[in-house]
Prior knowledge:
Structural class: alpha+beta
Strand order of the largest sheet: 4-3-13
Radius of gyration: 36 Å
Amino acid sequence: MNPEKTHSHVTALATSAPYDLTNLIGWRTITGQVVTPATVERVSAVLACLRILSEDLGACPLILRRRTATGNVRATDDPRYGLFHDNFNAHVTAFDAMAAAVWDCLTHGAAFFQKEISPLTGRLAALYPLSASRMAFKDQLSDGTLRWSYSLPNGGARTFLSDELWRFDMLSLAGSADGRALTLLAREAIGLLMAAEEQGARLFSQGIQSNIAFQTAETLDPESRDQVKKALYETYAGSGNAWRALLLENGLTVSKIGLTGQESQYIEARAFQLSDIARIFRIPGVLLGVKETSTYASAEQFYQSYTRNTLLPWCRRIEASIKRDCFAASEADLFVKVSLDHQLRADTKTRFESYQIAVQSGILTRNECRELEDLPQLPGLDAPLTPMNMSPTTQRLAQTVSSIAVAHEQRLLSDGKPVAEIYGRLLPPFLRDKCGLTEQQAATYCQARLAGKGTDALVTILLAPEQNSPAA
């Protein structure tokens, strides 16, 4: 089903490809640098951003889930669960495919997969990555179907219909089926960084800085000038000859005529350019080695910020496109969730404290906690625990005790006794001796009543987790 046969290994441009010229030729920036999807990958800061986003998102597993009457569950019984989670096809893992797709989306504005539909089930059976550099939007048919033209590596082109593809794009304009490459939109910033890197490379390749001059009182003929120049370059040019002492003769002197790279704030300019690239890709500067003024209380808070501000929009983009392209209308109960659990994973102590709270509250079972830690399940740990103060028996007992206590309280109030005497001297002994409340519970209830709270406060006090339930 794969049109390329060697789908994931073909990256060269074919001359017959129906490309947009901006993808094939690129843009010449004001700095004179030509920015193309290929040249941006050779810029260290851009390469770092591409790797961070593609590998981090590739590491987020795609989980096929099903909506049921009792909630959402993993659809492990569906054959497509392994397709999304493990291998898109027999040769490409889900990690490699998603990492390459995010890379394509950043450098070309969109990512494409060819769908293979099983003739037996009529459902998705495999996904094959298609190189975005070979794909170009063609037109839209009268029925709304979109068409793309794909350049084959052996020449010629194939037309794909939207029903044959899973695609997701970024920064597309309203009403457009084409995404826009982030690297081309930011071409001036990237071009400036490319020019700075070239400047630094030339400084080391040519070796002799252009901000010094050699002078002599004698008049040199062309041959003598060539000899001096040749001697200087052969002896002192290149990074291997850096910091060698200059040996001058025949009245030759050296003088400084400009600023050094540091004095011209070259290093500071490079740091600003790195920050600029980080902002464009929404990458925290610390991941690129850029010093930042903002700090985080813990590594967990840093990753929460990174996940929420950088990865989450990508996850929603991918999830929505899968729902649109990979499921039939009759499969409304199925959806794919990009799991960010590993990005938000806390340290061991924090995780186990959270598990303890979840288990004691009846939210998670003990085996579910073991599964989150990749541990095998144990017999007898599948039932959720019910806290004693939340059991039906305890609640009924609390309500009974409350009704007895409130009835006695109302009789005291109807007798016209002073409120302070009732809640300070008369009611507390009754609550302790007749209703089984602790001294602290009785005092808490009386203080609540004096503060104007209702009689229902007693049930809340009786069911409070830190207090013991009253005995029958």
